[in-house]
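Sequence decides. Consider this:

===
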Amino acid sequence: MSDTRLKKRPRADEEGKDSNSLPSSSRAVAARRDEECWYEDGNLVLAARDVEFRVYMGPLVKHSPVFKDMLSLPQPDARTGNTVPRVDVTDSPEDLRHFLRCFALGNELYLNATPSGTSTAFDKVSAVVRLCHKYEVEDLLQQALRWLKARYPSSADGWHLRLCHEPTPLQSIGVVHLARLTHTSSLLIPAFLDCCTLTMQELKEGFEREDGQRECLSEEDFLRVLNARTELMRADAQAAIHILRPETQPYCPTKAECTNSLLQTLKAVAAATNPGRTRLRPHMSETWWERIENDLYTLCDSCSDDVDQRQQEMRLALWDRLPSIFGL
């Protein structure tokens, strides 16, 4: 599941002629200064909707070829009261603020994903990914993608040990969009797995970003998740039958007890089947593997080791099937 960068990203000014433009007298709006990113000695004003950010041009020009091109012939704007150029952007103030914070150290770029105020870590990282992709700030983009990859591991063992609580399964819809945007294919399968745990209503409604924009899966990905949920439930049932088959080990000292324990646990697992709650989510409550751990304490050591081995084999085999299950 290695990353694939399918094609060179279009430059931001190629994505839409009006997405970033130097001052236009026809775009006069009642703007307010951002409380955080307004430096009196800054030499550039960025305007996002009704919020203005006064920052330092140097770091942006150094790290972003898009800003370098836009500001190669700066044009002062009389509304700033001096010769500071003003650039209107179509980004949300929330996204732009998170992006500009990364330039606070000057020439060194630093992504601080610590939650603060009403902003979650994912709010910050997702904003940075979107704007770094748009403005071609590659070093910072890679920092943000590394943060996501650490929380969406692309290996079976990494996923099995995953304990993070953010991004949430609902925010994984946004991770799917970021993976598509940046052509980071290794994020897709773990993000889709999280989406498989959502209810039908959550899948339909999506989630609301910090800036108020709602993100939903595309129709194609929505169907992809629904089909995968069905296939995962089928695979889960097959795995349970294989793992809990009532076969004891040759050296089992309590064959009758172990056989009965396996049979009763298999029956309990069958009765507790729940869409999306598979052993691929071992940290979730009510997974059937947790039920195994709770119910099979009566097994002898030999039979318990055998069940552990079967479970590991099936988990790895199913992980290898995930690209096919998700149609990737």
